[in-house]
Amino acid sequence: MFSVFRKLDWFFKQYWKRYTFAILALIVASIIDIIPPKLIGMAIDEIQYSTLTMESLLDILMIYGILIVLSYTISFLWDYTLFGGAFIMERLMRSKLMRHFLKMTPTFFGKYRTGDLMAKATNDLKAISMTTGFGILTLVDSSIFMFMIIAVMGFTISWKLTLMALIPLPIMAVVMHKYGSIIHERFMKAQAAFSDMNNDVLESIRGVRVIRAYAQEKQDEQRFQNMTEDVYHKNLEVAKIDALFEPTMKVLIGISYTIGIGYGATLVFHNHLTLGQLVSFNVYLGMLIWPMFAVGELINVMQRGNASLDRVNDTLSYQSDINVPLNPKDISVPEHIKMDHVSFAYPDSKTWSLSDINITIYRGQTIGIVGKTGTGKTTLLRQLLREYPGKTGNLLISGTPIEEIALDKTREWIGYVPQDQIMFSKTIRENIQFGRADATDDQIKHVMKMAHFLDDIESLPKGLDTKVGESGVTLSGGQKQRVALARAFIKDPEILLLDDALSAVDGKTESMIIDHLKEQRKGKTTCITAHRLSAVMHADLIVVLDEGKIIESGTHKDLMKTQGWYCEQFKLQQLEQQEVVS
Questions:
Q1: Which residues form the ABC transporter domain (predicted)?
Q2: Whether pTM exceeds 0.85
């Protein structure tokens, strides 16, 4: 059960001063809380034996008042320090998870679903935070505070009465251990079910338009209902065990009270105890209720925290597929990129997505990559992004293997516009500034002109401050694509990767964007994949892929002379365009 503290030793070592102070303050507060029942017993005995004077009464009341002020002050300090530490733990773990997510490759996100990761970053971290806050409180109260009360009862009142009243404690220990193991198992299942539900909700929200288009609202609602029922039942199983803690504790505490009052009255009758001592003893017995409850709460919190920590650590222990060089080579500018017999296969795939690729790209050149669907165009660009392992051959930048260059450095050079544009739920200005945080409005308007988006921005209700909605839902496909282009342009990267980034715009808009590219990207490297060959006609080198292999390469003029796939496809597209115009 306490293994969760061992797993979190790095945190407690880092904040040992905070937790040492909190625990010491908690102990001092416990000592203060033990004194008032003793004063009550003394006062009762003085009343019984008619020895209470106004002076001694005022002394008792003054001590009581001082204890109240001290208890309030110290309780505030330990509460603030202890639970402040719990919030620090939650913040650290959430930041740690986020950094881990950002370092991971697509393989990781293929293994862990988004809903599961969200559940770990919310529910599981909250359970871990409870362990480092409420868990420490229950640990101290169920051990040190309980021991103090028992010691005071035994040493200052009666060991016989104390031992008799605590007979239920061993029974409680056995029952609580049994409950704890059951809670751990059931809580793991409940958290897993919550993760599944989270993922289902996310998919439904993302695909709501498709669900409506196919009239699947009722089926999706039923599926969600089934999942919520599953979550409900699994949490109900946890709640059943939770519900057993309190009545079990009440029964055991009731037995202790019965023994305390019955046997205590006998001791008073035989003059082994005074009435004031019996009253103090029963007050202390009442004070034992919370430490006894704390034992149950401790087991509950520890098991939940342990289960959640195991889930989070499982995610954090996942190693990135891409190795970062320990002593990276320092290259200021990518003068040329060379793929030398590069082949690549995706993880869990038995076929090569790229096979024996040989290309040399010099700084300032524009490269077009074309071919049928599924021939490896996107995969070729991803070799520069280093998203997956599995590459053979050499990919050299300025003569240095890309594996020997810092990953942050290579990605700093690159501006990337993927096929599926990602829009953040912010304003258009903020989406574009993602490429360069300090970009001014003039710079933003310049790149919007390059992306041919100025006319569109004027028609939007709040211009640059228009919010694009979840995943850019308020923008059309072409608008999202041009905002994504503007975001890449404002970075002014050394290497610009456009992965079919002009597919959602018309031919005239495409032509204008290409003209801006040719003008603004002089001296910088640009790689364009496209299905519409007009997007790569101006390129210095065009490569044609088929089943991951280069079957043709050259300029537009060269490829038109070869009468191969490129020539045939270009003529076909020209013919289709003429038919549309006519």
A1: 337-572
A2: no
419: in domain? yes
Continuous segment of H or E residues that includes residue 342: strand 336-344
Closest alpha carbon to 412 in 491, 335, 322: 491
Q: For the chain, how many residues are written?
A: 582
Encoded tokens for 490 = 């404002």
End residue of a domain, out of 316, 345, 375: 316
CA-CA distance, 336 to 367, in Å (whole number)? 12
Q: How far apart are the first and last CA of the chain?
A: 77
Look at residue 321 in the predicted model and tell me its pLDDT: 79
Residue 325 falls inside a structural domain? no
Does residue 240 share a domain with residue 93?
Answer: yes
Spatial separation of the C-alpha atoms in residues 17 and 384, rounded to whole Å: 47
CB atoms within 10 A of CB 191: 24
Q: With 0-12 CB in 10 A as exposed, 13-18 as middle and 19+ as buried, what is 6?
A: exposed
Range of the domain at 387: 336-581
Domain boundary among 258, 282, 316: 316
HSE, CB side, 13 Å, CA atoms: give it for residue 257: 11
The residue among 459, 185, 480, 200 whose CA lies nearest residue 306 is 185
> Which residues have a Cβ under 8 Å from the Cβ of 87 and sit 6 or more positions away?
129, 133
Residue 321 lies in a domain: no
CA torsion angle for 453, 455, 456, 458 (degrees, to 10)?
A: 120
In whole angstroms, give the CA distance from residue 395 to residue 191: 43
Cα 483 to Cα 467: distance, rounded to the nearest angstrom? 12
Q: Are residues 282 and 397 in the same domain?
A: no
Mean pLDDT of the chain: 85
Residue 543 has pLDDT above 90, yes or no: yes
Phi-psi region of 374 (alpha: psi -120 to 50; beta: other; left: phi over 0): left
**Beta carbons of 548 and 355 less than 8 angstroms apart:** yes
What is residue 427's DSSP assignment? B
Question: DSSP assignment, residue 324?
Answer: P
Is 346 a domain residue? yes
Contact 529, 381 (CB under 8 A): yes
| Contact call for residues 477 and 419 (beta carbons, < 8 A) | no
Please check whether residues 284 and 425 belong to one and the same domain: no
State residue 74's pLDDT score.
Answer: 92
Q: Sort residue 357 into left (φ over 0), alpha (ψ -120 to 50) or beta.
A: beta
> Is residue 310 domain-shared with residue 342, that is, in the same domain?
no
> Quick one: which H or E segment has residue 397?
strand 391-397
The whole-angstrom separation of Cα 524 and Cα 361 is 11
CATH number for 185: 1.20.1560.10
Two structure tokens written together for 113: 């679903």
Angle in degrees, CA 50, 56, 59, rounded to 5: 155
Same domain, 277 and 380: no
Are 394 and 309 members of one domain? no
Domain count, the chain: 2
Question: What's the pLDDT band for 1 if we cut at 50, 70, 90?
Answer: low
